[in-house]
Specification:
With about 90 residues, the chain is an all-beta fold. Helices cover about 0% and strands about 65% of the residues. A 7-stranded antiparallel beta sheet has the order 1-7-6-5-4-3-2, with no helix packed on it. The radius of gyration is 14 Å and the shape is globular.
């Protein structure tokens, strides 16, 4: 497994929030079958938050992905508070 934790752009999702297309390092990828899906909660007790702000979570998707260069398994994550998508890792 290779870890990247790099920001994605142009992320498109389906009706349940699964990423179906995104851009990473100037290449477009298509999302395929979901292999796993989970949510991790943020450690709210370790964060200094503005009054009234809610602790967020991170939604993870392990999916098959394809591009013009091949296919593979990737873990993508959406930070629910910032709405930023990241490519967390690529499974070898």
């Amino acid at each position: 497994m290779r870890t990247y934790n790099e920001r994605l752009t142009n992320v498109h999702t389906d009706h349940v929030g699964k990423p179906v297309r995104w851009t990473w390092r100037e290449r477009t990828y298509q999302g395929g079958p979901v292999l796993d899906h989970w949510i991790t909660t943020t450690e709210w007790w370790r964060q200094e938050q503005a009054a009234g702000a809610e602790a967020g979570g991170i939604e993870h998707w392990l999916i098959e992905a394809s591009s013009a260069h091949g296919t593979g398994q990737v873990e993508l994550a959406l930070d629910e508070a910032s709405k930023v998508w990241r490519l967390v890792s690529v499974v070898d």
